[in-house]
Amino acid sequence: MPMAAHHQTSKHTTDLGAIQKAEDFVRAFMLGFNVDDALALVRLDDLFVESFEVTDVKPLKGDHLSRAIGRIAGVGGKTKFTIENVTKTRIVLADSKVHILGSFQNIAIARNAICGLILGSPPSKVYGNMRAVASRMAERF
Predict the structure, then answer these.
(1) Which of 22, 71, 77, 131 is deepest in the core (most CB within 10 A)?
(2) Could you list the pLDDT tens digit for every one of the 141 residues in the chain?
(3) If residue 69 lies in a helix (H) or strand (E), which one and from where to where?
(4) What is the DSSP string of 87-133?
C-alpha cells in the first residue's frame, strides 16, 4: 500500500508557499537528508534538491556500477565530504541514486564533480576542477 502525507493550510497560514515548502521538507527527509538539512529548505528560498541515477551518466552494471558509487563516496566517505564542503551542498547516495541539496549553482558544480568521478576521472583532477570553478563563482559574488 503506498504511503502518503496530506498537507493543508489553515486560516493562520500567511505564506502562500507554505504547502510547497512542506512538500519539499518531507521529500528531502524521505530521500535521506537529515532533519536540519531538510529544514533549511523551509527556511531558505534558494535551496533545491536535484536527483539523478548513476546510470543516467554512464550505463554501468554489476561491479562497474558498485565501483562508480564507491568512487563517489570515497574511502570512509572522504570524497563525498570533500565535494560537499567545497560546493556547500549536501549529498545523499541511496543505492544507485544521487541526491544533491544546495543552491542552483552549487548543485551544478557538485553534479559536474560527481559525473567526472562516474566517468572515471581521477579524484585529484575532479577536486582541482571543482575548486577552480567554486573559486571563480565566489569571486563573482
Answers:
(1) 71
(2) 566 766 677 777 777 777 888 888 999 999 999 999 999 998 998 999 999 999 999 998 999 999 999 999 989 999 999 999 999 999 999 989 999 999 999 999 999 999 999 998 888 898 888 888 878 877 776
(3) helix 62-73
(4) HT-EEEEETTEEEEEE-HHHHHHHHHHHHHHHTT--HHHHHHHHHHH
**Whole-angstrom distance, CA of residue 97 vs CA of residue 53:** 4
CA dist 39 and 23 (Å) reads: 11
28 Cβ contact list (under 8 Å, min separation 6): 37, 38, 41, 49, 101
CA dist 76 and 108 (Å) reads 24
List Cα–Cα distances, 27 to 22, 51, 92, 123, in angstroms: 9, 11, 13, 30
Coil/strand/helix, residue 40: helix
Could you tell me if 32 and 92 are in contact, meaning their C-beta atoms sit under 8 angstroms apart?
Answer: yes
114 and 129 Cβ atoms separated by less than 8 Å:
no
